[in-house]
Amino acid sequence: MVKTEGEKAQKEKKKPAKGKKRPVGRPKGSKNKKDEKLTLSAELLRIQPVLQAFLVVLKGVLSISYLVMDGHFGNYPSAWMVRQTGLQFVSKLRWDAALHEPFSGKYRGRGPHPKYGDKVDVHKMKKKYLKSNQKADGVGTQIYQATLLNKEFAFPINVVVILKTHLSTRAQAHVILFSTDLELSYEKMIDYYTLRFQIEFNFRDAKQYWGLDDFMNVKEVAVTNAAKLSFFMVNFSTILLRRFRKTNPDFSILDLKSHYRGCRYVSETIKLLPQKPNGILLAEIFEQIARLGMVHPVLEPVSTA
């Protein structure tokens, strides 16, 4: 997506002027925004109709419950947009996201009931939130899960913190995942977010091997067909790879293309012969020629049918 001039200008307005800091406290004349209608960004307004149309296509065919988006969309407007479709949202928060425990103290009898409790330090989380603690290759990995609050969100969120500690240097790094589904387990949340990277791999394969990066079409229908064909080949090649990887786990797409290119060369050459070789010899020819361009040759014969 190419940002419009209006979007660029709006982004620049949000940046604070150099050398100036926002004054402490609430701006004069500001009002509570709780009852105001949420305004989606231009980016989300582009995504919203696509998501709604996609769910219409899936209706009656496939039932899904979650939508995973990367950390760029780890905010309340994105979560709100997804919840309007009936789906639950899974994403990643900023590393410095301000998280609070729900208030659990005693009400003093004056003023509004407190909503936010203690602020959470992701490097020193309470033991009651610890779900997993493992050590491997000199790195300790602790996983915490809790229902927490963020002042940007109008509802509680299910938060999973993955904290890694280098056991010798004590250096730490962390990732904060979250979901609008308060019942989602930490294992599934991590699995769901990890699946997002498969999208990146699919785009990589479509560009590198199946022409998504270099087709020359410019008209809408032609561009749509070229893009769909690229992604179809990603899925189709994945299925074709299965039988080769049973005996050769390193077999790659380059090997697959070399195999079928070799089979095509043999087929075209056989057509030029006045008499076809017998079946055994023909199979040996296919096997030998198909191996020529492979990086990881097949160890056992594979049917070309």
Can you give a write-up of this model?
Strand 5 and strand 6 form a beta hairpin. The strands form 2 sheets. A 6-stranded mixed beta sheet has the order 1-2-8-7-6-5. The protein is built from 7 helices and 8 strands, in the order ααβαβββββββαααα. With 305 residues, it is an alpha+beta fold. It is 39% helix and 17% strand. It has helices at residues 5-14, 42-58, 76-84, 186-209, 220-245, 253-272, 279-291; strands at residues 66-68, 88-93, 100-102, 116-119, 130-136, 139-148, 157-166, 172-179. Helix 4 packs across helix 5 and helix 6 packs across helix 7. The protein folds into 2 domains: 41-103 and 115-202, no CATH class; 210-291, no CATH class. The longest helix is centred in the last third of the chain and has 26 residues, at 220-245.
Kindly list the characteristics that best describe this protein.
7 helices; two-stranded antiparallel ribbon; 39% helix
SSE layout and pairings?
Elements: H1 5-14, H2 42-58, E1 66-68, H3 76-84, E2 88-93, E3 100-102, E4 116-119, E5 130-136, E6 139-148, E7 157-166, E8 172-179, H4 186-209, H5 220-245, H6 253-272, H7 279-291
**Low-confidence spans:** none
**Residues in β-strands, percent:** 15-25%
Q: Which structural class do the helices and strands define? A: alpha+beta
- The whole-angstrom Rg is 27 Å
Mean pLDDT: 87
What overall geometry do the principal axes of the alpha carbons give?
A: elongated
Number of strands: 8
Q: Count up the domains.
A: 2
The total of helices stands at 7
Q: Please give the largest β-sheet.
A: 6 strands, mixed
The ordered string of helix (H) and strand (E) elements is: HHEHEEEEEEEHHHH
* Sheet with most strands: strand arrangement: 1-2-8-7-6-5
Distance between the termini: 42 Å
The share of residues in helices is: 25-40%
